[in-house]
Design a protein that fits this description.
This protein is an all-alpha fold. The chain has 25 helices and no strands. Helices cover about 75% and strands about 0% of the residues. The protein is globular, with a radius of gyration of 25 Å.
C-alpha cells in the first residue's frame, strides 16, 4: 500500500516533538521581548530532544577552542610548567645519580622506582578526585615534589647527598605526580563544556610535548650554569607556582555523591569498570600498547642507536630525542584540529599503525637524516594516539567515577619501565633494529585483534561520547 506524496512529506505536528506548541508559549514568558525569543526557546527545546545534534552544534569550531575559557587557560599553564619541571627533574636527577655512583644499574634503579607509586597510588588518586575538592587537592599534590626538591637542593649544596636520598626523592616526587596527573586530567571536564573536552585534552598534549622537548635542554643549561643544587631549588619554586595557579581555577561546586561502598572497595571501581565495559576495556588495551611496546623500543634504546647504529655522539643523541619531541608538538596541534573527528576507534587504530610503521622505518633507516624524519613521524602519531585515548577513556566514564577511571592514565607510564627492560634484553639478543621491528609488528597484531574482535570499538563515535552515550 502506497501513501500519497502529500501525506508522505507532510510535516509532523510540532506537539509530537515538544510537550506543547511554541506558539502557545508566546506571551507566556514575562521576560520575552518578542516572538523571536520564544521561537528560539522552542528551537533549543527541539534540539535538546536530539543529543547528538546538540553535541554536534556545540562542538568547538577551531583547534584552540578550549582556550576561550579562562579557567582552562590557568589549568593549561599549570600543566605546562608542572610537566616541564618534571622533565627538568628527571634529567637533573639522572645526572646527579650517575655523577655520584658512576653506575648505570643504579641510575636505572633510581629512575625505575618511580613506577611503584604510579601503580600503587593511582587508585587512591582516583578516589581523591571523586570524593574531594579537586582544585584544592591539585594544589596540595604539589607540596610533596616542591618539598623534596628544596630538601635535595640543600643536601646538594652541602655535598651531603647519599644514594638513599635519591631513591627517597624519586619515590616521594613520583607519589605527588600520580595525584597531580589524575586530578589535572579530571579537572579538564570541570572547566570546559563536554563538547570541547576532546579539544582541551588535545591542547594538553601540546603542553606535554613542548615541555618534553624543552625540559631536558633547560636542565642541561641549568646544570652547566648554576649547578644541580640551584636546579632543584628552581624546580621547587616552580611547583609552588603551579600550586598557586591551581587555586586560580574556578570550579562550580559538585553535588556530593553518595558512597555506599567503603573507601577500600571504591578505590578499585575504575579497574572493575575498565575490565567489564566493552569499549573501555579495548581502549585500555590499545592505550597500553605504546608504553609496553613502542615507546621503550626507541626511548630506552636511543643511546644504543646513536652510538652503535648511527655512530654519533651526545649531540646526535640529542637530535634524535628532539626529533620525537618536535613531532609530538605537531601531533598535539593535529590532535586539537581533529578533536571533532567522529570515528574515534578508527583514528586510534590508524594512529597506532602509523606509529608502528614509523618505528619500522626508523629501525631500517640507512642514515641518521632519514631516521630523524621517521622519528618526527613517530612523535606525531604518538601524540594523536595519546590524545584520542585519554579523551575517549575519560568521556566513557560516568561522572561519579570519572576520577577513578582517569586514575588509570598515570599507570600507563609505569609500564614503560617493563617495556624498557624487555627492550634491553631483546636488543642484547637480536640487536636494536630487529627488536624495534619485532615490537612494532607485535603492536600491529594487537590493534588488528582489537579491531576485528570488538564491534563496540569499531563503532566508537565522538558524537555519542559527547552526548553521554
Amino acid at each position: 500500500m502506497y501513501l500519497p506524496l502529500h501525506r508522505l512529506f507532510r510535516r509532523a505536528p510540532l506537539q509530537s516533538t515538544l510537550q506543547r506548541s511554541p506558539r502557545a508559549d508566546i506571551g507566556r514568558h514575562s521576560t520575552c521581548r518578542s516572538r523571536a525569543c520564544c521561537r528560539q526557546g522552542a528551537n533549543r527545546a527541539t534540539i535538546a530532544q536530539f543529543p547528538l545534534i546538540e553535541a554536534s552544534l556545540a562542538a568547538p569550531s577551531h583547534a584552540l577552542a578550549a582556550f576561550r575559557h579562562r579557567d582552562y587557560r590557568w589549568l593549561w599553564c599549570g600543566t605546562f610548567f608542572s610537566t616541564a619541571a618534571q622533565w627538568i627533574q628527571q634529567a637533573t636527577l639522572g645526572w646527579v645519580v650517575y655523577e655520584l655512583t658512576e653506575s648505570p644499574a643504579l641510575l636505572g634503579a633510581v629512575l625505575g622506582v618511580r613506577a611503584i607509586p604510579m601503580l600503587l597510588l593511582a587508585p587512591v588518586s582516583g578516589l581523591v578526585a571523586d570524593r574531594f575538592d579537586r582544585r584544592r587537592a591539585l594544589a596540595l599534590s604539589q607540596i610533596a615534589p616542591a618539598g623534596v626538591s628544596i630538601i635535595l637542593a640543600a643536601l646538594l649544596a652541602r655535598n651531603a647527598v647519599e644514594i638513599w636520598h635519591l631513591f627517597a626523592f624519586s619515590l616521594i616526587g613520583s607519589s605527588g605526580t600520580v595525584f597531580e596527573r589524575t586530578l589535572r586530567n579530571t579537572l579538564v571536564f570541570d572547566v570546559v563544556p563536554r563538547a570541547e573536552a576532546a579539544n582541551a585534552v588535545a591542547l594538553n598534549t601540546i603542553a606535554f610535548s613542548v615541555a618534553r622537548t624543552l625540559g631536558p635542554a633547560v636542565a642541561g643549561i641549568l646544570i652547566a650554569t648554576v649547578g644541580p643544587a640551584w636546579n632543584f631549588a628552581i624546580q621547587g619554586a616552580t611547583y609552588a607556582g603551579v600550586a598557586a595557579s591551581a587555586m586560580m581555577v574556578r570550579v562550580a561546586p559538585r553535588r556530593a555523591a553518595r558512597h555506599g561502598a567503603s573507601a577500600w572497595r571504591s578505590m578499585f571501581v575504575g579497574l572493575r569498570f575498565a575490565a567489564t565495559h566493552p569499549v573501555v576495556r579495548v581502549i585500555v588495551i590499545v592505550g597500553l600498547v605504546p608504553p609496553l611496546l613502542l615507546i621503550p623500543s626507541f626511548s630506552a634504546l636511543m643511546p644504543v642507536f646513536a652510538a652503535d647504529v648511527f655512530r654519533t655522539g651526545p649531540e646526535g643523541l640529542g637530535l634524535l630525542l628532539s626529533a620525537v619531541g618536535a613531532g609530538g608538538i605537531v601531533g598535539g596541534v593535529i590532535a586539537a584540529a581533529l578533536s571533532r573527528h567522529d570515528r574515534v576507534g578508527s583514528m586510534q587504530s590508524v594512529s597506532l599503525l602509523a606509529f608502528a610503521a614509523c618505528l619500522i622505518g626508523f629501525a631500517l633507516s640507512p642514515s641518521m637524516a632519514v631516521a630523524l624524519v621517521f622519528l618526527v613521524g613517530a612523535g606525531v602519531f604518538e601524540m594523536v594516539l595519546a590524545s584520542s585515548t585519554h579523551t575517549s577513556l575519560q568521556m566513557s566514564a560516568p561522572e561519579a567515577m570519572r576520577g577513578q577511571v582517569t586514575s588509570l592514565l598515570p599507570m600507563f607510564p609505569a609500564f614503560i619501565s617493563v617495556g624498557s627492560f624487555a627492550a634491553g634484553v631483546g636488543a642484547q639478543l637480536v640487536g636494536p633494529s630487529a627488536l624495534v621491528i619485532g615490537f612494532a609488528v607485535l603492536a600491529t597484531l594487537v590493534i588488528g585483534l582489537a579491531w576485528s574482535q570488538s564491534k563496540a570499538f569499531r563503532d566508537l563515535r565522538m558524537s555519542k561520547l559527547v552526548a553521554g552515550g
